[in-house]
Amino acid sequence: PITFKNNDEADGVWEGIILEGNNSDSDSGTLEYLKVNDSSSDSLKLNNVGSSTTLENIEVVNSSANGILVSGGNPQLKYVCVSDVEGDSISVSNGAELKSQFLFLKNKENGSGSGVSASLNDFVSISNATIMGYDSSVKLSGCAGDFRNNIVTN
Fold first, then answer.
1. I need a surface site. Which of 10, 20, 55, 98 has the fewest CB within 10 A?
2. Pairing of strands 97-106, 123-132
């Protein structure tokens, strides 16, 4: 895997990775076999990333904010592990349509986020996932969703 992490002993002193797209079908490239560790902001930001982008085999560990932020677009995530983040493991906003499967999401015990959060005008599809959140595991406010074959616990 390709690992992005802080070389300093202090946790969370770098900003993470930003992937930009321009519409719901766009191809913003490929992120496969990726590890993102110790960021001080959202570890992986997906801004308007389209469904033709490949996002597979991704691990996010120890973020001071959200693990993965999906802002708009139509990304598809497969084989993702997010653990020990202080914010939401996956946060969906700005009318995004997230489709995901084969997830393991676990927040920090003293963190303030959810396993998954989404709001009005978002769509979230999650299949074959284990979601563990200490504040709340799944927080959906006025959005649509499709949840299949998941284990959810606080």
1. 10
2. parallel
